[in-house]
Structures are given as C-alpha cells and as structure tokens.
Amino acid sequence: MVDLKQTLGRFLTIPGVKLAVLVGRDGLLIEGLSRDGKEDIEAVGAYMTTGLNTAEALGREISRGGVVGALMEYERGLVSIDPLGDYALVVTLFDNAASIANVRRMVKAIRNEILEALDIA
C-alpha cells in the first residue's frame, strides 16, 4: 500500500520546494507536508482548488481544453497546481522557477501511485 505522506515527501527532496499538498477537488485536504510548517496546508489546498476551477472555466471559455497544470508566480515564490483526474490535485509551493521542471517530473512519476492509493486509478 502506498504511503501518501511518504510519496508527497518526495517533493520536499526537490531543492526549493516548501510544501506539497494532495487535496480533493472538493477542497478537502487528503494529505500534506510542509518543510517549515509556516503555511496553513488546509487553506492552501482549498484556495488552490478554487484557483483550478477558475482556470478550467477559462479554458472552456476560450476553447483551449482542460487544464494540464497551472503555475502562479508570486513576489516570493511559485505555486503549481497539477490535476490528478477528476478527484484530486497536487499543489506544490516552491521558491523559484529553477524547480519547475523537477516538480513537473515528480508529478508524472508519482501520479499513478497516488491514484492507486486513492483507489481511483
């Protein structure tokens, strides 16, 4: 059986990643880890679910299809939202753009593990 906390912990091995959250599409926290504990994991997950829903609505409106991933850049870091089908998404918070490729590779590498653990594969 896949340990979701351990699986998400693999994101924290990427330099600059501060937070990794697995959240349901309903905004409820499934699992989350923070490097320093400063962020409210539940709030981050809930807000990012809303952000993804908005991005998906825009994609439909402009006829661009479904969201494959979303990236938000802030003054002091970035947030990545990666949908895992219709039921969950992975949210990562990291310091700079140098980590983007590593975060994207990790999402692809662990996608099936997470879906199996959630029994929605």
Verbal overview:
The chain has 121 residues and is of the alpha+beta class. The protein has one domain (4-117): Beta-Lactamase (2-Layer Sandwich), CATH 3.30.450.30. The protein is 37% helix and 28% strand. It has helices at 4-9, 41-61, 100-117, and strands at 17-24, 29-34, 70-74, 77-84, 88-94. The chain has a five-stranded antiparallel beta sheet with strand order 2-1-5-4-3, sandwiched between helices. Strand 3 (70-74) and strand 4 form a beta hairpin. The radius of gyration is 13 Å and the shape is globular.
Average pLDDT for all residues: 92
Q: Give me the number of helical elements.
A: 3
Strand order of the largest sheet: 2-1-5-4-3
Largest sheet: 5 strands, antiparallel
Structural class: alpha+beta
In short:
By secondary structure, the chain is an alpha+beta fold. The chain has helices at 4-9, 41-61, 100-117, and strands spanning 17-24, 29-34, 70-74, 77-84, 88-94.
Topology:
Blueprint: H1 4-9, E1 17-24, E2 29-34, H2 41-61, E3 70-74, E4 77-84, E5 88-94, H3 100-117
Antiparallel strand pairs: 1-2, 1-5, 3-4, 4-5
Key attributes of the depicted protein:
alpha+beta; 28% strand; Beta-Lactamase
